[in-house]
Prior knowledge:
two-stranded antiparallel ribbon; 25 helices; metalloendopeptidase activity; metal-binding; protease
Amino acid sequence: MTGTLDAVERKLAVPPAASEWPTYAPRFEALLAESLDAAGVPDWLRRWSELSAELYETASKLSTHADLHTDAPDIQQRYQTFLAELMPSAERADQALKEKLLSVPGYVPDARFALNYRRFRDAAALFREANVELGVTHEQQKNRHSVITGNQSVLLGGEKLTIPQAKQRLDSPDREAREAAWRALSASNLQVAPELDQVMLDLIVTRWTLARNADEATYLDYQWKALDRVDYSPADCRAFHDAVQGEVVPILAELMKGVADTLGLDAIRPWDYNRNNLLDVQRRAPLAPFQDGGQLETLAEQAFSGLDHDLAARFGYMRSNGLLDLESRPGKMTHAYCQYFPTRNEPFVLMNVVGTAEDVRVLFHEVGHAFHGFYSGDTQPLVWNRWSPTEFVEIPSMAMEFLTLDHLGHVFSPEELARYRRSQLQGVVSFLPWAAQMDAFQHWLYAEAPSTVTVAELDAKWLELDQTFHSFVNWDGLDVAARAKGWQYYHIFHVPFYYIEYAMCYLAAVGIWRGAQRDPAAALEGYKSALRLGSAVSVPELYRAAGVEFRFDREHIRGLMTFLKEQLGQGEATGGGTADRSH
């Protein structure tokens, strides 16, 4: 175990008592028993917030520790015990406190708390006792996905690799090497597919039951309320799917045709695309800007120093305090994310780096989330006002991918930086069809498909959507199951309906970058100002603070695609680098 990993383990340590309900129960009971009038609400809220932050931090640390050790039964069991024995009591206590707050006569929340007061009211109305224990089951089912995929490995050329290590081979300029890697990954995915099929079927039953218990007609209706989606409708999402199909898919298909023609490929096969990897038409070796996590941290800190002194200081704090775990290793969940520990206002980034330029992008993305945690935590004392609604939460991360583009001269040569920049721009074009496909699949699954949907129906719907959004990929002669199981993706299991937000925020991030080209200082200040607002203002207000509009309609998408095509036209003629999105 490295010294860095030792620091991470110390950061994630949770004393035994902290994961037991008796540690928290007396304080919840005292808050509930307290006589409360309108004048006393602010101080009462502060104490409830502090208690909630402690509980949230314990849950976050236990969850993250379990993700770092999917192969450790004792660590997994501790987290599962916490979910089963503590969280139901905490959820009931939270509901009781919400009801107490909502019943205080004459209380009018101030402007900073008004939105969350309304969210408390809506959440209290959605609460059902029957869903408390069922919520534990839901979390346990999701964790089964983490354990299965965290212990997944790939056998390639006699070598046993983690999933991120195998995916790295997909960037090879050698087509035979890419194909071998793709086939090995597909074999590994198909090996675990039956287990994941069953996990998904169990989740669907649970999710529909949650909805029916709450008197909602569909799980879409239930989750729409649970996610507090008040600024747009399911119809707006369906219009987005159509807009992407009409405005973005043709651009992506044209781009990939240019790649195939330049490389002399008979067709774009899955190993030539694999979701969003765009081939380098000059057949150059993949960019390899670092060798290990420590080097990646160093180059990132230098980039942040060039961008903004305070951002660099925040990242330096993360480096020094065990808040980064970047290396890929067996038994570690393969997804990247940013966690948050609110009592000390500390974000934590988990990744699986293997030395690619894509790792550089993903680190900037996840640390953008971390900056959101830092800045909203600085200015928003109540824990519920930190971060933001989901429709904004990806802007800090995606905008940081763009804002760092002009501060990577120490990482890449001018030619390499042009490749990296082009990859970033191409990635927006290639990501939007994937996002639309993911969102469309979930709208079908939870609003149109029956609650008794079969695995065969899941596979068939995914194939239909993949043909709509990625028809330029030629799958002739290949096992159709390898394509049909594309829905077996992290967000489908763990965060249902949370995906269109990536598209919304990518569009906004492009807008922020466009503004930064005119006035870098103003764009950065708008970015930081929006982060400080946390969840205290509405989604449209957050977008305006960042200098962009909350829009994802066809006209808006067309305008941004025109801008991206212009930017791409300023670079290499057809392509360069890779653009594998990690979302």
